[in-house]
Write a structure and sequence with these properties.
The protein contains 17 helices and 12 strands. The two termini are about 25 Å apart. Strand 11 and strand 12 form a beta hairpin. Among the domains are: about 100 residues, no CATH class; about 60 residues, no CATH class; about 180 residues, no CATH class. By secondary structure, it is of the alpha+beta class.
């Protein structure tokens, strides 16, 4: 967990791309022409000549950092504007100002001035520009995620959101950034810096995605190793980035995958959860009382959860507000990788129990849509006949009545109709006619009972609205299909049909974002599969 989500994903965003560079503005600023760049470089010289911190503080950090880099002036460990100003003025005290070399101006307009070198002319000060960050934040707001997944902060990249948890780094990198950067850079020329940046990042995302699947085999472990090695080589080739111990450890994870299998069997989410509980407790700093303080807080929290879950509170605005406040305060206890991992254990039995409970406590039986009855009949054993068969047919009949459910537990997760919970209605499923994995939205869930061999059998079915697949021409313009291991693709944002599928054929949720690709010209929906078991289609 620490190595992949914090040591690699977080490190890439903050230390490779420079999201953590203080003093970097998040506001829209006008780019400088080459002529303006030359003028601002000379302002730096004048500010140093006058020993004026005030004058230098009005200059963009890119000019200060580039001049320092070009003259081998070390700002220390802090890459802040103040640190660069201090370093430049300190250098001037022991060197004539005429010895200060100015870097060449760029051949293009630029917001963040930098030293142009290398094949792709990439600087950590300009990977994610303010314009790109604004698009990322808009996409985070507009992306629909299932309820079990922790949403990244809407102001990602700003110090205002505070420290992100490991699970949030996982979501923001493997879902949000992948969706946005692929749609922005996915169709860029293969020799462009955007293409190089995206390919390097996707190698990392793919490696993390493969390593954290809930099933593992030799091929998947070797694929992880290949993507991780390609990612690290890209850091050296593109950024000349100095590798850190976590990068070295990432290569040793392959042997762990071969030896011990899926990482969710031995990673530290539960331990980190309890560390978070301990760290959040108010204590009196008297060592002998800490254990009792922890126990008091733990049991108080457990009792509070029991009361909130079992008491039928009055239907009034005051109690509704109270419940909303409670769910906001304790939302992390029902979301995230730790919870979804735990619920996935023994999910087959949990699904069967959920189906029985939903049927026994559900609404009254209602007539099934006549258009769906033939599909239901096809799922029945051959020993059953249609309810409308001839009287001479002695086989037991398939009743055309069902019990509807708004949501149901499956694979340790909650799947729901779009009327009940839109977040949990976007799914990847196996199409009953083609056998292909495709994207759809749950329109209805219903439970059907039959008697088979003297035993009542209750089966769950889903009425699925199927998203229309791209034409062959448009499919070639889908930037997501280039990265097959991440199981993401575009569909037209309308339904082409409604099919009846068994609950067992529902494979996973998907993260959904709608936009209109410029090359296609029709509104599409991105389906980023969140399946952590199956092979990609």
């Amino acid at each position: 967990m620490h190595n992949l989500f914090l040591g690699n994903l977080r490190h890439h965003c903050m230390d490779v791309w420079g999201i953590d560079i203080k003093g970097r503005t998040g506001k829209k600023v006008a780019p400088h022409t080459p002529e303006e760049q030359a003028s601002w470089l000379h302002r730096v010289v004048e500010g140093i000549r006058k020993d004026s911190k005030n004058a230098l503080s009005k200059i963009r950090i890119g000019y200060l950092a580039t001049i320092a880099q070009f003259n081998d002036i070390d700002p220390g460990s802090l890459l802040t504007k103040r640190a660069y100003i201090t370093a430049l003025l300190h250098w001037a005290k022991s060197h004539p100002i005429d010895e200060l070399k100015l870097p060449p101006v760029l051949n293009e307009d630029a917001v963040d001035f930098h030293l142009a070198e290398g094949k792709y002319d990439i600087s950590k000060f300009r990977v994610l520009t303010p314009d790109v960050m604004e698009i990322i934040r808009d996409d985070i707001k507009n992306t629909v995620l299932p309820s079990w997944m922790e949403r990244p902060p809407h102001n990602f990249g700003s110090a205002a959101h505070g420290k992100l948890k490991a699970d949030q780094w996982r979501t923001v990198c493997t879902v949000s950034l992948f969706i946005t950067l692929t749609r922005l850079w996915g169709n860029a020329p293969s020799d462009s810096k955007e293409s190089a940046l995206l390919d390097n990042f996707v190698h990392l995302v793919t490696a993390v995605d493969l390593a954290t699947r809930r099933s593992m085999d030799v091929d998947r472990a070797n694929a992880y190793d290949d993507h991780m090695q390609r990612y690290l080589q890209g850091l050296l080739d593109i950024f000349s980035h100095q590798l850190v111990p976590n990068h070295h450890l990432s290569l040793h994870l392959t042997s762990c995958l071969h030896t011990f299998g899926p990482v969710h069997g031995y990673w530290g989410y539960s331990f980190e959860h309890y560390n978070g509980i301990l760290g959040g407790l108010n204590i009196n700093n008297i060592a002998e009382h800490i254990a009792l303080t922890f126990m008091d807080g733990f049991y108080a929290g457990a009792e509070l959860r029991r009361l909130m879950a079992t008491i039928e509170w009055p239907h009034s605005p005051e109690y509704h507000d109270m419940m909303e406040a409670y769910h906001r305060a304790f939302q992390d206890t029902a979301r995230g990788t730790r919870v979804s991992d735990t619920r996935s254990l023994g999910h087959e039995q949990a699904t069967a129990e959920s189906i029985r409970a939903a049927y026994d406590s559900g609404s009254k039986l209602t007539a099934l849509d006549p258009n769906l009855y033939p599909a239901l009949l096809r799922w029945m054993p051959s020993g059953f006949a249609s309810f409308y068969a001839n009287a001479e047919d002695s086989r037991p009949r398939v009743a055309p009545h069902v019990c509807r459910a708004s949501s149901i537990s499956h694979l340790g997760l909650i799947f729901a109709t779009r009327q009940h919970s839109r977040r949990n209605s976007f799914v990847i499923f196996t199409h009953p006619e083609t056998g292909d994995k495709t994207a759809g939205q749950i329109a209805d869930i219903f439970l059907h009972a039959r008697v088979e061999g003297g035993t009542r059998v209750i089966a769950a079915f889903v009425a699925m609205d199927v998203y229309a697949g791209l034409t062959d021409v448009h499919a070639k313009m889908d930037p997501y299909r280039a990265f097959t291991s991440l199981d993401t693709r575009l569909y037209y944002n309308y339904f082409q049909s409604t099919v009846l599928v068994r609950l067992d054929d529902v494979l996973a949720h998907f993260a959904a974002l709608t936009y209109t690709p410029e090359a296609i010209g029709v509104e599409c929906i991105v389906a980023r599969s969140l399946d952590r078991v199956s092979e990609p289609h």
